[in-house]
Structures are given as structure tokens and as C-alpha cells.
């Protein structure tokens, strides 16, 4: 493997040997030579030996690095007595050499941790039972755990801290002696520190606010050190085209939620029940189920044409939505919403960021995508609250029901003109070089698994597909040669129990959020007699919590807890929020509704980011490429959840508005309990 250090060859996990042993065990169990209990014990012993060799070598190398840093520290101390600029320079070079050796050691740990994860999953696949669960439970939680040395690198991180502190000390030696412990935000200009921090970040899953935001977009963030081919470079990158994709994302989210506060009134004005608002809101999601697939395929050939088509569909859809009032036709209104759903180009937006934005800017672009979505979600209802006016121009009626359609119609017309004049098709399309990209991200649309940005031991792992074919004897780095899934059915066959559990969680959180948002107008009008403006303000406040909550989780919480711990805790809190939302007494209070809604919505947002991060980690790399990628599967799961939720609201409406709240909360309650059970069942596979 290219990343392996030649002189360390004997200390890497012998992945080929382990695969060979697995094949032998399969044959022996099939012919009755050994039972599964024997196989489990023997394979555990072999893997223990492999890990022990890795850990002992790791400790030895850490000791060497520590000794070198200590020697350099003694030389540094002598500089306090007699300052010599030439010695400072030599000392800095010495620390840099330690830094480069430290990077090699961090990559050593990365490769071995990936190999361990892969061989555990391969054992589960071959034998059909949860060896990973058994092995991680017995080894990781043992007081003398060697597995912890590989996955929780306390010693090596201490070496990183010592190196960083000393380099920073030398950097500021000519005057002020600043400590990184007093000023943790100090910027280290030495490039070796950036490289070390990048490697540590990968290993420890250290994250920050921007990274946590990026996890929501599920846009692949490739390893800057990997040397992988990247179509995007500084010369071909076009900032205005990126802005157009982000604006498309923002406008689409505004378009989705601007009708929520008034959809029930619109339905009543056209002679339907107020709860038909569920169908009105959900019809856009129904169409998105299909549009996600063809936009995913279309983005393999062009970005400009899909965006133009999207804008035209949304323009026409909003026009029909606005005209439905004067035509007195619920059918025209629903057709308008369906056309809007057919214009959902979120898959194209994610794919553009993944393929056409340089690696060094992709993190910011991914965070921008999520921020644009969150801002659109908040601005939609807020804008609806300002459209509480009524007038006529000729025979056209402009009121709180139709103005959302007219406003969005104008917005999409302006966007279409802007797009036509300024968008620049990437060079790899204009030159008609059709190279299928290995990244198609989109947890909501498609493209690659946006494995957020700092996947510990994950990008390597995904690049080395765990679910390789049985006859593949290639090493870790070559297992990504398998082609992508060619249909929904073939993609489904690649789903492991862990992936299915994460998709179920994604379905659940989208279901719960859609129920909360879509029925808010009907529920608050029935119980509290809220006006449209009050509903709009309430929904806007919910939307505005997205960024602050992600900031808290991304900056603080993820440094204190593992992703799987945050996942389980968030699921429990969503369950609590759903239970609190039920109407248990004749007097349903505003505080109960608002508090329960905030708990449900906020923790569903937290859950989404962690869920997508874990999903990208456990999913096969074969699902990170092509049309039927992991992003598309998660998008379809979320979109179907919205469709089912909105249909549930309309169906429950026939039982009466007094029963609407409790009836619509029962399905998410059950699904949430099942998702918690699925998380517990697969908990150790998320290690």
C-alpha cells in the first residue's frame, strides 16, 4: 500500500492473512471441521496478536518521539541563558523533523484502525453473526484494553501537544513568550503543525462548528493528503456558479415552507377541509421522490441545464399555486406543488459542491449549503407572516394564500435570468470529458456521503470498501475498485444492519419534524386560536434555532462525547419531546406545546447531523459513487418520511380536529421507540 512506511512493513495489520484465514474458516465450518464457537475463539486470538504487535510498536515509536522532544527541550532551555538565532533555526528544524515522523505514525494508526474495522465487518458478513459486537464489547471495555490504544490515542495526542507547544514557543521567541495553553486560539504558522493537526483530526474525530454543519450536507470532504484526483482546482473554480447553487438551495427551502402557515386557510377557501394542508404541503415531497433520481443522473452530464429546468418548473409551479385561488381549483393548486417538487435540484447543488469546489474551500461551501437551507427554512414562514394583505389587480386576487405563490414566482424568474447570464459550466463538461466522479453527495439530495469533514479513520475506510467481493484479494487501498450500484435494488443489497438502522433514524427524525411543522397551523388555531402571523413567527423561531444549536454541538458537545452517545441521547430526547406533545387533558396549554415542540425540533436537528456523520462512516464505498448512491438513499428515506407524515395529517383529519394531534403523534412515537431499539442493537458497530 502506497501510504505504508517500508521499514514498518512488519508492524501493520496483515490484512491479506486475515482474509485468507476467514476463507479457510468458512470452508472448515461448511465441511464440519470446526464449529462457530471454535472459529470465534481462534480468530479472536489471531486478531489479539495482530493488535498487540501494532500497539507495542506504537508505544515504542511514541517513546522515541518523546525522547527526541525531551532532548530538543534541553537545547531550548539553554537558549534562555544565551540567545543564538542560528540555534533557534536549527532547533525549529529538529522539531519539524519530529513533526514529519509524527505524521507517519498517525497514518500508521489510521491504516491499522481501518484494517481492524474492515476485518471485523468482513467476519460478520461471512459468518452472519455479530462478531464485531462481541469483540468490541470484550476488548474495548477491558481495563487493559489494547484496542483502546488504537482507537483512543491518548499518548500520541500528548506528543502532538508537546510538539505544538514547543514550535509555538520558538516562533514567538524573539520577544513575547506566549503559551498555547493561555491562548488556545493562537494561530501556528508552521506548516508541519497544520499537517499534524489534520492527521490528528482524522483520528480523533475532532470537530468544529463548520465541520458539524458540513455533516448535515453529506458532501464528501476528501483527505487533502490523499492525492486523489480532483476535478476542481483554483483555475476552474467559479465563485458565482457556487453562489447560484447556494441561492437555489435557499430559495427552494423558502418555497417549501412559505406556504405552511397559510396552507390550511387556502384549502378551506377552495372548499376542502383544513387538514388537506397535509396533502398540499406533502405533494411537493411526493414529486421530489422522483426528481431526486433524475437530477442525480442528470448531474453526471451537466449542472447548468438541470438548474435551468429546476427554475422553470418552480416558476410554473408557483404560478399555478397562485392562480388556483381565482380558478377555484384544488387540483390546479396540487399540480402547482407537484411541479415545484419536480424542480428540486438539491442533488445538483450538493454534487456541484462535491465536484467543482476546490478541496480547501469545500468545507466552507458545505457549511454554506447547510446554512442556506436553515436560513431558507426560517425565512419561509417569516415571509408568509409579512404577506397578510389583500388586493386585486384586474381579476387576479392577491391575499395571504396566493401571495406566497406570486412572490416565489417573481423570485424564481429573477433567479433564472441571473443563472442564464452568469453561470459557468465546469470545464470537464464543456470539454465533454465524461468521467464519473467518485463523489456524489447529499444526504438530502445525493452525491456522496458527506462524511462531514473529519471522519476519524473513515475516509480511508470508505476508500477501502468493507463490503468487497469474496474473491477480491487486493489490499486495503484497492478495494474501492468495485463499481457503484446500478439500481435501487442493488444499492439496497449493500445495506448492512448498521446502515439500515441509520436510515431508519433519518426516516424517524424527518417524520417527526414534518408532523410538527405541517400541522402547526391547524393545531395552534384549534387549541390556541393563533393568527397566521403568530404561526409564522413560531415556525421562524424554530428555524432560527438550527445554527445556534449546531454551533453548541459542533464546538462543545462533540469534543466531550462519542457520536454514538450523542445519537442515542438525541433519540431519547426526541422521544421525550413527542410524548410531551400529546394532549392528555382537556386544557392543552401553550407552554406545553411550545416546550415540547422546541425539544422535538432541536434534538431532531442534533440527531440529523450525528446520524449523517455515522451513516457516512458505516456505508459501503460502493454507495459513494454513481446515480444510486448513499446520498440518494438517505434523500429518498427523508422524502418518503415527509410524504407519509403529510398523508397522515390529512387522513387523521377525517377523525376530527380534536383527535388530530394525538393520532398524528402515534406513528412517530412508535418509530422513535423502534429506532432506539435499532441503535442499541447496532451500538457497538458504530465504534
From TrEMBL:
Residues annotated as domain SPX: 1-137
Acidic residues bias: start-end ranges: 466-476
UniProtKB keywords: Membrane, Transmembrane, Transmembrane helix
Transmembrane segments: 242-260, 266-295, 307-324, 330-348, 369-391, 403-421, 503-528, 534-557, 566-587, 593-615, 659-683
GO cellular component: membrane
Region (Disordered): 458-483
InterPro entries in UniProt: MFS, MFS_Domain-Containing_Protein, MFS_trans_sf, SPX_dom, SPXM_SPX_plant
Location(s), subcellular: Membrane
Domain of life assignment: Eukaryota
CDD domains per UniProt: SPX-MFS_plant
Similarity annotation: Belongs to the major facilitator superfamily.
PANTHER family, per the entry: INNER MEMBRANE TRANSPORT PROTEIN YAJR, SPX DOMAIN-CONTAINING MEMBRANE PROTEIN OS04G0573000
Protein name, as recorded: SPX domain-containing protein
Source organism of this protein record: Digitaria exilis
Taxonomy of the source species: Eukaryota, Viridiplantae, Streptophyta, Embryophyta, Tracheophyta
Amino acid at each position: 500500500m502506497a501510504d505504508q512506511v517500508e521499514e514498518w512493513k512488519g508492524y501493520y495489520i496483515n490484512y491479506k492473512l486475515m482474509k485468507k484465514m476467514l476463507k479457510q474458516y468458512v470452508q472448515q465450518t461448511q465441511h464440519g471441521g470446526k464449529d462457530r464457537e471454535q472459529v470465534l475463539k481462534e480468530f479472536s486470538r489471531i486478531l489479539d496478536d495482530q493488535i498487540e504487535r501494532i500497539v507495542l510498536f506504537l508505544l515504542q515509536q511514541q517513546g522515541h518521539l518523546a525522547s527526541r522532544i525531551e532532548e530538543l527541550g534541553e537545547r531550548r532551555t539553554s537558549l534562555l541563558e544565551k540567545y543564538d538565532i542560528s540555534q533557534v533555526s536549527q532547533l525549529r528544524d529538529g522539531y519539524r523533523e519530529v513533526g514529519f515522523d509524527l505524521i507517519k505514525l498517525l497514518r500508521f494508526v489510521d491504516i491499522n484502525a481501518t484494517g481492524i474495522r474492515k476485518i471485523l465487518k468482513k467476519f460478520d458478513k461471512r459468518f452472519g453473526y455479530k462478531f464485531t459486537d462481541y469483540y468490541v464489547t470484550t476488548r474495548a471495555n477491558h481495563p487493559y484494553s489494547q484496542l483502546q490504544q488504537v482507537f483512543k490515542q491518548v499518548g500520541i495526542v500528548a506528543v502532538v501537544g508537546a510538539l505544538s507547544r514547543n514550535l509555538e514557543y520558538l516562533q514567538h521567541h524573539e520577544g513575547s513568550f506566549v503559551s498555547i495553553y493561555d491562548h488556545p486560539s493562537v494561530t501556528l504558522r508552521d506548516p508541519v503543525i497544520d499537517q499534524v493537526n489534520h492527521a490528528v483530526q482524522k483520528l480523533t474525530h475532532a470537530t468544529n462548528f463548520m465541520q458539524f454543519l458540513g455533516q448535515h450536507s453529506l458532501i464528501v470532504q476528501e483527505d487533502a493528503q490523499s492525492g486523489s484526483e480532483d476535478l476542481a482546482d483554483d483555475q476552474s473554480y467559479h465563485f458565482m456558479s457556487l453562489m447560484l447553487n447556494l441561492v437555489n438551495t435557499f430559495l427552494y427551502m423558502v418555497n417549501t415552507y412559505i406556504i405552511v402557515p397559510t396552507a390550511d386557510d387556502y384549502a378551506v377557501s377552495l372548499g376542502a377541509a383544513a387538514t388537506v394542508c397535509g396533502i398540499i404541503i406533502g405533494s411537493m415531497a411526493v414529486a421530489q421522490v422522483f426528481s431526486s433520481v433524475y437530477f442525480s443522473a442528470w448531474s453526471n452530464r451537466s449542472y447548468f441545464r438541470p438548474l435551468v429546468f429546476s427554475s422553470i418548473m418552480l416558476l410554473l409551479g408557483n404560478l399555478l399555486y397562485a392562480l388556483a385561488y381565482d380558478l377555484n381549483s384544488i387540483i390546479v393548486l396540487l399540480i402547482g406543488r407537484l411541479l415545484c417538487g419536480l424542480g428540486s435540484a438539491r442533488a445538483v447543488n450538493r454534487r456541484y459542491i462535491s465536484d467543482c469546489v476546490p478541496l480547501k474551500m469545500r468545507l466552507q461551501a458545505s457549511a454554506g449549503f447547510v446554512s442556506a437551507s436553515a436560513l431558507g427554512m426560517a425565512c419561509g414562514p417569516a415571509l408568509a407572516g409579512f404577506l397578510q394583505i389583500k388586493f386585486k389587480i384586474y381579476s387576479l386576487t392577491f391575499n395571504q394564500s396566493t401571495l406566497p405563490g406570486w412572490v416565489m414566482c417573481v423570485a424564481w424568474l429573477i433567479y433564472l435570468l441571473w443563472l442564464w447570464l452568469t453561470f459557468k459550466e465546469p470545464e470537464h463538461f464543456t470539454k465533454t470529458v465524461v468521467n464519473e466522479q467518485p463523489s456524489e453527495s447529499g444526504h438530502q439530495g445525493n452525491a456522496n456521503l458527506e462524511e462531514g469533514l473529519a471522519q476519524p479513520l473513515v475516509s480511508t475506510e470508505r476508500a477501502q470498501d468493507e463490503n468487497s467481493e469474496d474473491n477480491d484479494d487486493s489490499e486495503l487501498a484497492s478495494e474501492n475498485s468495485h463499481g457503484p450500484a446500478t439500481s435501487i435494488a442493488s444499492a439496497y443489497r449493500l445495506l448492512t444492519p448498521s446502515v439500515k438502522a441509520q436510515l431508519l433514524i433519518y426516516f424517524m427524525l424527518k417524520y417527526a419534524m414534518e408532523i410538527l411543522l405541517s400541522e402547526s397551523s391547524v393545531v395552534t388555531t384549534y387549541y390556541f386560536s393563533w393568527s397566521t402571523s403568530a404561526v409564522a413567527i413560531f415556525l421562524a423561531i424554530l428555524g432560527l434555532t438550527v445554527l445556534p444549536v449546531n454551533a453548541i454541538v459542533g464546538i462543545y458537545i462533540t469534543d466531550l462525547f462519542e457520536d454514538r452517545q450523542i445519537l442515542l441521547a438525541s433519540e431519547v430526547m426526541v422521544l421525550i419531546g413527542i410524548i410531551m406533545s400529546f394532549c392528555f387533558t382537556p386544557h392543552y396549554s401553550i407552554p406545553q406545546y411550545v416546550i415540547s415542540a422546541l425539544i422535538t425540533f432541536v434534538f431532531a436537528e442534533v440527531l440529523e447531523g450525528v446520524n449523517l456523520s455515522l451513516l457516512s462512516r458505516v456505508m459501503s464505498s460502493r454507495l459513494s459513487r454513481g446515480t444510486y448512491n448513499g446520498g440518494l438513499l438517505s434523500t429518498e428515506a427523508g422524502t418518503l418520511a415527509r410524504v407519509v407524515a403529510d398523508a397522515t395529517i390529512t387522513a387523521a383529519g377525517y377523525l376530527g380536529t380534536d383527535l388530530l394531534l394525538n393520532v398524528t403523534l402515534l406513528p412517530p412515537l412508535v418509530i422513535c421507540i423502534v429506532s432506539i431499539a435499532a441503535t442499541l442493537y447496532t451500538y457497538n458497530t458504530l465504534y
